[in-house]
């Protein structure tokens, strides 16, 4: 259908088929331009779009303050009443104009009949009764059917409630219509926050009388968008008398319903992400991350592997500048996990984010490495390939079932320098110690990999997170103790999780910094978000800036957290009243004292002692003598 | 984790000898150290002496694997070679065959790798998949075969691109292979790399 900006061409109105055909851009423009300025550059059609844009913008500004539309659309298109005064309206209108114009331009760009969709988004006509699309008609019919069903119910109450529910849906629909109209035409109109009574009613309905039909997702989605708009420009767009908390509460409920999250998890996520980012994060979790593979440089080169796979009909690309062995698979005509190259051990299926901790660990040849939670063996084999099969790796995991895949993968990839064991990670270093480097990929709540396992959205609660955090703290202390700080080339621990929760990441790292003689060093990864140094009411050590966070929506890889420690002393600081008597302790003291959180109650005793020690270096001897004497006394 | 007894060592070397002839010494004395065989839970592992020290410190119940598993002893004390030994018994593809040629020193293959596996069989691309599913190789799928292969000789099976696919036992000598009809079995299947996906659980 033509898209010419021809004002003389009448567009068809009415419920017929021809009216369904896409309306030209002149319809959109007509809403903003003052009469007579419709269709600037009429005969030039599409190429006119960009030059028309600035003109339209200028025209849009002058279109402010019109009460009606004086072109042919006034019959079916009536703007909503303006509530606010002009100056405020100006500000917001401009932005919305810009927004809408971009959309407008987009629409002009698009080839196919998605102008109907665009029209829907702006809601110019979708809400009008006489312009209903067949599907909307069907939806309304369905709703009235449900209503009918509801009334047919023998239980009076249920019928009532269902009718109320249907009413509410209609209200929601109207709200949505109201929303659409507002977003387009008159931004002075606000997102209507349902009153408290209405929210309570909804709650009661959902708890006591589960509605016969599922909540209307489209309505909820619209509500979310409207709500977010208000929250971002709260001072301007708020409804009088409603607090921000109420808006946030409704937003949380709607998001939980729309994206199927538990309320607990959503609260945690709202603490971590600002609102627009939160929506991106939630959307990113609905979509799987791209499939990536890692070339096994023990057996082949990335170039050769790429060539071989392309010959089999796989569409791939190198992963990025930061990786020399990664390849991302776009699509493939053969199963990637069963090609002869895979079986020959030329590559390993591995997420992009799993390459990062090993790159941070940077294992050198002829070192002793411990991988505490190695299943299914992707990181272990990467370590082995970086070491070129020299040195020694101890690959440990506490789950015997998953160790089978570790053994299988290691053998397939041709790794020969590894011993696989099945111990609980907390038993190190009793089992074996004195490693040069340790990689701890701690078991976690999995909130970074929701796209792989959607069950995490609902089955994690406070207890799970705290339990994970507790286990991680024990594991990290074991990991630190298993490293030999005096190693010439090593002395590094890398701690990583596939979670984005602060309780499992920064908190655990901070705990380790307090409890052991370690310090954080740069991971060597130059991209990724820095770790938090403060979060809500907690304050972490400033060096946590060197830790890295990765998110699905910003980096297009699974959510990850990576921190790299350097152990500078093998001594373990005592956290009791008596001052540490080891020679290494004084060097440890300045570090541990400079992690100062007076709010923290944990290490009060030891801190007091250490603070005593620092300003009185002359008395150090006295203290250590005291310490020597004390055991005898005790 | 214990060293192999006399009988066990003999069984293992006999089996290995079927595939690589008398070059077993090359497996033991390598330029990057001495390697040895150890037995753990009926499986034979091949590892360097350095790794042995590490493996010995791990408690026996917790040890799952060390180095490379070559195969296992069945209940009747026969030694069965597994596909995980393929990297050691098959040499790497040589440069010029168009396939992978690794840059750094290929550690699993001994230094004069080219002569380790004596008898080789190349399989046509069409029958690769069939072999990887565990079927025997038919005459119709046979691409090349080393000269003077005796009957029931252990062979290493390759694809035409010189990628090792597994082990087999020649069902017919080379002479007979030329005469036999296309549907006759020429190589009995012993182990193939498809087992990494099919039988992942039985590797340990």
UniProtKB/TrEMBL annotation, chain A:
Q: Which protein are we looking at? A: NOP2 methyltransferase
User: So where's the catalytic machinery, residue-wise?
Assistant: 498
Which Gene Ontology MF annotations are present?
RNA binding; rRNA (cytosine-C5-)-methyltransferase activity
The SAM-dependent MTase RsmB/NOP-type domain covers which part of the protein?
Answer: 281-568
Compositional bias per record (Acidic residues), positions renumbered to this chain:
96-120, 150-164
- GO annotation terms (biological process): maturation of LSU-rRNA; rRNA base methylation
Matching entries from PROSITE patterns are given as: NOL1_NOP2_SUN, SAM_MT_RSMB_NOP
Species of provenance: Atrichornis clamosus
Where does the record place Basic and acidic residues bias? 138-149, 165-176, 603-613
Which CDD domains does the UniProt record give? AdoMet_MTases
Specify the domain of life of the species encoding this protein: Eukaryota
Q: Where is the composition biased (Polar residues)?
A: 63-73
Positions contributing to S-adenosyl-L-methionine binding: 373-379, 397, 424, 441
Q: Name one GO cellular component term.
A: nucleolus
Cited PANTHER family: 28S RRNA (CYTOSINE(4447)-C(5))-METHYLTRANSFERASE-RELATED (PTHR22807:SF30), NOP2 YEAST -RELATED NOL1/NOP2/FMU SUN DOMAIN-CONTAINING (PTHR22807)
Q: Where is this region: Disordered?
A: 1-180, 576-634
Bias type Basic residues, positions: 10-22, 619-634
Give the record's keywords alphabetically: Methyltransferase, Nucleus, Ribosome biogenesis, RNA-binding, S-adenosyl-L-methionine, Transferase
InterPro entries reported in the protein's UniProt record: MeTrfase_RsmB-F_NOP2_cat, MeTrfase_RsmB-F_NOP2_dom, Nop2p, RCMT, RCMT_NOP2, RsmB-like_ferredoxin, RsmB/NOL1/NOP2-like_CS, SAM-dependent_MTases_sf
Q: Where in the cell is it found?
A: Nucleus, Nucleolus
Q: Give me the segments passing through the membrane.
A: none
Q: Which SUPFAM superfamilies match?
A: S-adenosyl-L-methionine-dependent methyltransferases
UniProtKB/TrEMBL annotation, chain B:
UniProt keywords (A-Z) are: Nucleus, Ribosome biogenesis, RNA-binding
Q: GO cellular-component terms in the record?
A: nucleolus
Instruction: Outline the extent of the PUA domain.
Output: 119-194
Localization annotation: Nucleus, Nucleolus
- Family of the protein in this entry: Belongs to the NIP7 family.
Summarize the protein's role.
Answer: Required for proper 34S pre-rRNA processing and 60S ribosome subunit assembly.
Q: Can you supply a Gene Ontology BP term from the record?
A: ribosome assembly
Q: Name one Pfam family in it.
A: UPF0113
Question: Is S-adenosyl-L-methionine among the key words of this record?
Answer: no
Q: Could you state a single Gene Ontology molecular function term?
A: RNA binding
User: PANTHER family of this UniProt entry?
Assistant: CYCLIN-DEPENDENT KINASES REGULATORY SUBUNIT/60S RIBOSOME SUBUNIT BIOGENESIS PROTEIN NIP7
| Record-given protein name | 60S ribosome subunit biogenesis protein NIP7 homolog
């Amino acid at each position: 259908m033509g898209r010419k900006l021809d004002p003389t061409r009448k567009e068809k109105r009415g419920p017929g088929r021809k009216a369904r055909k896409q309306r030209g851009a002149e319809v959109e423009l007509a809403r903003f331009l003052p009469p007579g300025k419709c269709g600037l550059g009429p005969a030039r059609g599409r190429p006119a779009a960009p030059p028309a844009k600035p003109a339209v913008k200028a025209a849009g500004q002058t279109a402010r303050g019109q009460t009606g539309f004086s072109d042919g659309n006034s019959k079916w298109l009536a703007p909503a009443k303006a509530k606010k005064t002009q100056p405020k309206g100006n500000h917001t209108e401009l932005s919305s104009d810009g927004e809408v114009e971009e959309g407008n331009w987009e629409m002009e760009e698009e080839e196919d009949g998605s102008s109907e969709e665009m029209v829907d988004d702006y809601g110019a006509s979708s809400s009008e009764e006489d312009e209903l699309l067949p599907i909307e008609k069907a939806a309304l019919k369905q709703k009235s059917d449900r209503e009918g069903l509801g009334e047919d119910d023998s239980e009076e109450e249920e019928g009532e409630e269902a009718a109320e529910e249907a009413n509410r849906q209609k209200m929601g629909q109207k709200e949505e219509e109201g929303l659409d109209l507002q977003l387009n035409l008159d931004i002075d109109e606000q997102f209507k926050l349902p009153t408290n009574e209405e929210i309570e009613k909804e709650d009661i309905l959902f708890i006591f009388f589960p509605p016969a039909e599922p909540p209307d997702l489209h309505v909820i989605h619209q509500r979310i968008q409207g709500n977010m708009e208000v929250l971002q420009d709260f001072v301007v767009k708020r409804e009088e008398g409603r607090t921000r908390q109420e808006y946030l509460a409704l937003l949380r409920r709607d998001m939980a319903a729309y994206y199927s999250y538990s309320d607990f998890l959503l609260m945690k996520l709202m603490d971590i992400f600002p609102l627009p980012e939160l929506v991106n994060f939630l959307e990113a979790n609905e979509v799987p991350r791209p499939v990536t593979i890692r070339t096994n440089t023990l057996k082949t080169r990335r170039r050769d592997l790429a060539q071989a796979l392309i010959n089999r009909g796989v569409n791939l690309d190198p992963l990025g500048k930061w990786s020399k062995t990664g390849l991302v698979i776009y699509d493939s005509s053969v199963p990637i996990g069963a090609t002869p190259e895979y079986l020959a051990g030329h590559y390993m299926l591995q997420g992009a984010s799993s390459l990062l901790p090993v790159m941070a660990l940077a294992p050198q040849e002829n070192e002793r490495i411990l991988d505490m939670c190695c299943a299914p063996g992707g990181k272990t084999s990467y370590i082995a390939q970086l070491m070129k099969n020299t040195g020694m790796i101890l690959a440990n995991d506490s789950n015997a079932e998953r160790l089978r895949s570790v053994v299988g993968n290691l053998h397939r990839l041709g790794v020969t320098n590894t011993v696989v064991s099945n111990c609980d990670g907390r038993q190190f270093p009793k089992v074996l110690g004195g490693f040069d480097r340790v990689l701890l990929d701690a078991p976690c709540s999995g909130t970074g990999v929701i796209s792989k396992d959607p069950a995490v959205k609902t089955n994690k609660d406070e207890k799970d997170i705290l339990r994970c955090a507790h286990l991680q703290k024990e594991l990290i202390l074991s990991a630190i103790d298993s490293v030999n700080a005096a190693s010439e080339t090593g002395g590094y621990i890398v701690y990583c999780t596939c979670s984005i929760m602060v309780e499992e990441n920064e908190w655990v790292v901070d705990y380790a910094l307090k409890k052991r003689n370690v310090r954080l060093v740069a991971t060597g990864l130059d991209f990724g978000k820095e770790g938090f140094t403060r979060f809500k009411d907690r304050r972490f050590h400033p060096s946590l800036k060197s830790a890295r966070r990765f998110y699905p929506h910003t980096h297009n890889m699974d959510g990850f957290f990576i921190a790299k420690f350097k152990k500078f002393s093998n001594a373990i600081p005592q956290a009791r009243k008596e001052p540490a008597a080891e020679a290494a302790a004084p060097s440890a003291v300045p570090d541990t004292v400079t992690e100062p959180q007076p709010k923290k109650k944990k290490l009060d005793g030891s801190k007091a002692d250490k603070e005593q020690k620092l300003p009185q270096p002359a008395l150090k001897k006295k203290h250590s003598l005291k310490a020597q004497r004390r055991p005898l006394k005790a | 984790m214990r060293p192999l007894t006399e009988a066990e060592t003999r069984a293992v070397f006999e089996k290995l000898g079927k595939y690589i002839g008398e070059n077993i010494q090359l497996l033991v004395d390598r330029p990057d150290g001495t390697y040895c065989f150890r037995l753990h839970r009926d499986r034979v592992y091949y590892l360097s002496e350095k790794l042995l020290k590490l493996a010995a410190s791990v408690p026996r119940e917790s040890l799952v694997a060390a180095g490379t598993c070559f195969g296992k002893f069945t209940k009747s004390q026969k030694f069965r070679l597994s596909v995980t030994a393929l990297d050691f018994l098959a040499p790497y593809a040589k440069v010029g065959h168009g396939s992978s040629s690794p840059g750094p020193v290929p550690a699993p293959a001994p230094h004069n790798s080219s002569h380790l596996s004596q008898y080789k069989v190349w399989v046509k691309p069409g029958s690769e998949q069939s072999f990887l599913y565990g079927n025997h190789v038919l005459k119709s799928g046979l691409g090349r075969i080393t000269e003077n292969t005796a009957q029931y000789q252990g062979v290493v099976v390759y694809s035409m691109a010189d990628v090792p696919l597994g082990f087999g036992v020649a069902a017919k000598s080379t002479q007979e292979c030329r005469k036999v009809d296309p549907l006759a079995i020429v190589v009995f299947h012993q182990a193939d790399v498809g087992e990494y996906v099919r039988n992942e659980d039985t590797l340990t």
